[in-house]
């Protein structure tokens, strides 16, 4: 594929699903792969713009471009790596690569996102702390970390502010993960409209995840109360920045329709 890439040096990806982790990016990637006018990366999560081994003073994009068949014409190309929204400098690198790229940002209730994140890492064997300890551990909280960023990744407002400093608002589309589940036809239709492609795919209530941790039980009540208090102001700020109605997330009895 590298030889073929050289024949199209001017080509760039059209869009990115840039976040948030555990917020339905796998499901959205799954649905968009069905669209005849869209070509997603061969594998989800290329992890290009968060690659700290690359010399970003003179970056090469062969690994990113090698995830696509450039012989196919007349399609939009996109990839989904949810850490881009959160990881330091990833969005700046993406803008340098393609300032005209469109971004899709999936948002999930931050307290429930944190618990889902911890369940995934525990299921993978990457964390051995209990959830309540993991979200209060001062040795972790506040640091940019690929695994232990349960609390930090849910602080959406600052991440969105950074995105909107780098990209025009018209190039950014926000959606709620719970709406993608509850109203898939509407939400996917809006995504296709945003990308400028015909409405050719719908969705069902398919709970598509990278790691199934559904059997690990509910979040402890004290932890939910702690996180809801922690995130309340950020939820309000996120609603103002994204234009989404997030008022339901401020209710202490909010539950996700996915039931997971």
Structural features, described:
With 260 residues, the chain is an alpha/beta fold. The chain has one domain: Rossmann fold (3-Layer(aba) Sandwich), CATH 3.40.50. Helix content is 37%, strand content 9%. The chain contains 10 helices and 5 strands; from the N terminus they run H-E-H-E-H-E-H-E-H-H-H-E-H-H-H. The protein has a 5-stranded parallel β-sheet, with helices on both faces. The longest helix has 22 residues.
Whole-number mean pLDDT: 91
Strand content: 5-15%
Total DSSP E strands: 5
Helix percent reads 25-40%
The CATH superfamily turns out to be P-loop containing nucleotide triphosphate hydrolases
CATH topology: Rossmann fold
The first-level CATH class is given as Alpha Beta
Q: What class would the helix/strand composition place it in?
A: alpha/beta
Strand order of the largest sheet: 2-3-1-4-5
Tell me what the CATH architecture is.
3-Layer(aba) Sandwich
* Tally of separate helices: 10
Overall form: globular
């Amino acid at each position: 594929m590298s030889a073929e890439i050289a024949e199209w040096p001017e080509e760039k990806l059209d869009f990115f699903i840039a976040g948030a982790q555990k917020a339905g990016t796998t499901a959205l990637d799954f649905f968009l792969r069905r669209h005849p006018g869209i070509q997603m990366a061969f594998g989800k999560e290329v992890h290009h713009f968060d690659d700290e081994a690359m010399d970003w003073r003179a970056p090469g994009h062969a690994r990113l471009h090698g995830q696509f068949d450039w012989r196919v014409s007349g399609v939009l190309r996109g990839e989904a790596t949810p850490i881009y929204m959160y990881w330091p400098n990833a969005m700046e690198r993406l803008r340098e690569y393609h300032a005209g790229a469109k971004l899709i940002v999936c948002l999930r209730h931050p307290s429930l996102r944190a618990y889902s994140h911890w369940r995934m890492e525990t299921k993978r064997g990457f964390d051995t702390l209990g959830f309540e300890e993991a979200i209060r551990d001062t040795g972790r909280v506040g640091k940019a970390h690929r695994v232990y960023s349960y609390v930090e990744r849910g602080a959406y407002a600052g991440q969105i502010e950074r995105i909107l400093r780098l990209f025009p608002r018209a190039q950014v589309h926000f959606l709620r993960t719970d709406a993608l589940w509850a109203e898939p036809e509407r939400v996917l239709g809006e995504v296709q409209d945003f990308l400028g492609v015909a409405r050719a795919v719908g969705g069902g209530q398919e709970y598509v995840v990278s790691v199934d941790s559904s059997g690990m039980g509910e979040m402890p009540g004290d932890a939910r109360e702690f996180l809801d208090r922690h995130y309340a102001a950020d939820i309000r700020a996120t609603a103002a920045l994204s234009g989404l109605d997030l008022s339901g997330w401020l209710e202490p009895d909010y539950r996700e329709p996915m039931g997971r």
